Amino acid sequence: MSSNIEDIYQALVNAGITEEDIESQINEKYNEYQGFMSKQAILFLIAKEHGLDIGSSSTDDIIHYEIDYNDFAIPISNVTETMSNIVIIGRILKVFDTRNFIRKDGSPGTVGFFFMGDKSGTIKIVLWDDQANLMGKEYFQAGEIVQIIGGYSKVGLNDEIEVHLSKVGKIILSPKDVDLSNIPKVETFKDLKVQGTISLKIDSGLSIKELYDKDGFIKSITGVIQIEEFKEIVKKNGEKTFLLKLILSDDTSSIRVLVWGMKAVECIKNLSEGDSIKLSNVVLKENSYTVEKELVFTKNSRLEFFNSK
Fold it and tell me: CATH homologous superfamily for 71-195?
């Protein structure tokens, strides 16, 4: 590069930008690009944004070079717990429906997940809000190549590693100029799907899909939770109570969970969307208005956490 860090830094100072502002902009860009861009490239970008002539090299070329995400890509089997800035490439194996929910602060949210695989293995990818909406597109389907940039890993249900896309992460469908040597061909990815680690039943018990053929007492069920609604209700006799509506999901389906009274208050204090939980001693009923199955808490019901988001 034609200019080093000190030269660019000094040029910014000479332009009247304080060192405090420069450091603040560096940190902002570093977070934006998830640590994939060097300090020198960040300074080039900041200088360009301020209209400074930083030398003969093209800033766009420098930034493009610095953010060649393929250099950071790893096989899916190399993903371990608590990693960040993850870059993986593979084929989409299975896509599940997204779910809408309401956060504790009342704001709406969306969550969805899919499985992707390369020749080394498979993994669950969890997307949130606008990123999750991409899954509803017609072209987002099994067999397509996808690149995840800026993911972080955590332990999900059944103690399996999953990757969540950070707010500033990227998901690229049919990425260009990527190494396809570790990605199974379309005609063979079905075999990978059979041989992979996709689990449709959790904790060796009932799946949520299987609940729809049952009624009455359910000893236990596990899944990932989203908060749909929490509100205070005035009964006909004038007494006040609380209602918490949750959506419990696993790899097979989703179901609404109703929690009433002070148990609703206890749950909302500790729950966050994306928590992996186990419900015990709940009752499965059919809602007379929606004709949908729902899980209802009783005085003996319990909620336990596996891993929190």
Answer: Nucleic acid-binding proteins (2.40.50.140)
